[in-house]
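Here is my example:
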Amino acid sequence: MKEQVTIRSGMLSGLGGFHRIVREERLFCAVLAHLLMQRGHNLEAFIALINNKLPAEHRLQAESLSESQVYVEFTFLRDYWDSLGTDSHRKRLLISELLGRVDGLSHYNTGSFPDDASDFNEYFAGRWGKRIRGDIVYPGRWSVAVLADRFREQPAEFRDFCRFKWSFNIKPDVVVLIPGMKPLCVEAKLSSAEGQYPTSSRDKKVFDEIFGPEQGRVNQVELQGFMFERLLGTPCQLITLGLESKHEVESVAVSWGEAFEALELDHSLSYVRNLIEQNIHLT
């Protein structure tokens, strides 16, 4: 007789068991953020875990932990841009200022690009951008193909313009801002590998034409470091959670088990301990 597998009525009520099989990375990131937000020693313990994996000269020292901020899916550039509303002048100034922080693009300024908004949009986004006349197109919507047409003869500049564009779209999984210390930028994976840019097959083809097959790609962690150090002017401590580190010394690899084992769970719902101790993807 064929064995049946069923989702029983009421499985989601009480101790239904979903916490044992859930594999959503964002849930585990939310739990980590929750634990780091608690009063007590969790944030201090997490920093100590990172420091134990760093050379002495790179170890982190905070001025105060009580004023720390913890973000799940850190979207600073996206939301700062949104806060400018439809002020095209300030948006152009922002683009110029941020380009000036990138070594290979610092020679560009507000006078380097068309004055008219629709022409400016066309310069970076192509034909569809020209139809937008009353506002400056969000840099995250710039076109890789259009950038390639503009800067094909300067491959390094083309790649930097793409890193600039992608920085407006990325959402580091967990970011902790601590007074007097480098921000902690966590890229977390449960079972998937680290992502790369570009992501679409069309844009990958453009990169292959310029750099060679599968060359010139930008890893997620590299892009996060670029965003913090160059565009935000604040070098961060890169952390890969559940992902083997393939980066320079500034990137620290931590397992989910190490992270949760270092943290106090008693001030959370019992569900948090059950999730951490019983989930099949963490054990």
